[in-house]
Design goal:
Aspartate Aminotransferase, domain 2; seven-stranded mixed β-sheet; globular; about 375 residues; alpha/beta; about 15% strand; about 35% helix; three-stranded antiparallel β-sheet
Length: about 375
């Protein structure tokens, strides 16, 4: 008898991350490779974070705190919210997956923009809900008005990625608040803010102030990007105690390991380091955008640590392949929902210069 697996696997899209360095070296037979494909920070963790991780590693024979009490308490202090409304996770993706299981089921609907974060298409097949994708507007931004028209009595979950991945665009907090005012109370809105620290439209804490006004709002954030902790997988959600209890109920215990908890609890103390990283990111962002536009290519104003570049009539696969053969790894737009585009993360100044010069040579 043949083993039969769940039919949901047939509808579940495969998530493919950016090519890692070792695979890139093999694929392109290149030794000098730079990775600008995964929106990682080019700068490692704060020295104090490394110290905290090293210290925690000595207790690796013990299970981590199931409730991540220290990390949640420091997050609560940082954002002046109650610890009971904070969920921590193995990267922000875990909260998204858990939220879909806790909130959605067959007959329910979830709404999100497209193109947006490539994890979202996994949520409907896993939960059994019906997904509704709303196209971005012609400025590569969320069309909040169009999203509102798709909300029905069956809608359980709406996801707004702000700033948006992969387009790098962002909407001001005032527009988000006006949107929330019109969303029915029965709908949970997840504001996915993985890149919120890097935008310059508002203070990153502005949306935190919306939480008391909107009990159905959840802010989803991560240590992977601006804190330089992608390899440790630590994210968190700020919302209600009911939301936290719901997502905790549908995921495994100890999902945030000992080292991740220690790293996050220390990293959140270093706001000055975050500010410096953001400043350096903005400098690189301006340089890359100017150079790309100088080649006659279009790219929307980024509020993140990457650019979304429209290649026009050029062949996307040929550009990605050509960059790869030169040891510059970027993300193709087609798997991210944007054929004819590439997404390039900002690296060090030297890495960004190499990308720009290589792309100019290809064009």
């Amino acid at each position: 008898m043949t083993v039969r697996f769940s039919s949901k696997l047939d509808a579940l899209p495969h998530y493919e991350g950016g090519m890692d360095l070792e695979r890139a070296r093999r694929t392109y037979e290149a030794s000098d490779v730079i990775k600008l494909a995964s929106n990682e920070s080019p700068w490692g963790p704060h020295p104090k974070v490394l110290e905290a991780v090293t210290k925690a590693a000595a207790s690796a024979n013990r299970y981590p705190d199931q409730y991540a009490a220290l990390l949640r308490r420091r997050l609560a202090d940082r954002f002046e919210v109650e610890p009971g409304g904070i969920a921590v996770s193995n990267g922000s993706c875990e909260i998204l997956l858990a939220a879909s299981l806790a909130l959605c089921e067959p007959g329910a609907e979830l709404v999100y923009a497209w193109p947006s974060f490539s994890m979202y298409p996994q949520l409907a097949p896993l939960s059994g809900a019906r997904e509704i994708r709303v196209p971005l507007n012609d400025r590569y931004e969320h069309d909040l008005e169009a999203m509102l028209t798709e909300i029905t009595v069956a809608t359980q979950l709406v996801i707004v990625c702000n700033p948006n991945n992969p387009t790098g665009t962002a909407l001001p907090a005032a527009e988000i608040e006006a949107f929330l005012e019109r969303v029915p109370d029965h709908v949970t809105v997840i504001l996915d803010e993985a890149y919120i620290e890097m935008q310059t439209l508002d203070d990153p804490d502005t949306t935190v102030d919306l939480l008391p006004k909107f009990p159905n709002l959840v802010l989803l954030r991560t240590f992977s990007k601006v804190y330089g902790l992608a390899g440790l997988r630590c994210g968190y959600a700020l919302g209600s105690a009911k939301f936290r209890a719901a997502v905790d109920a549908v995921r495994q215990p100890f999902s945030v390991n000992l080292l991740s908890q220690a790293a996050g609890a220390e990293a959140i103390l270093h706001a000055d380091d975050v500010a410096e990283r953001v400043e350096r990111t903005i400098i690189e962002r301006v340089e890359v955008e100017e150079e790309v536009r100088g080649m006659g290519l279009e790219t929307p104003d980024s509020q993140t640590n990457f650019s979304w570049i429209d290649l026009g009539d050029r062949d996307e696969a040929e550009v990605v392949e050509g960059l790869g053969r030169a040891g510059v790894i970027v993300r193709a737009g087609t798997p991210l929902g944007g054929p004819g585009h590439i997404r390039v993360s900002y690296g060090t100044p030297a890495e960004n210069l190499r990308f720009v010069e290589t792309l100019r040579g290809l064009l």
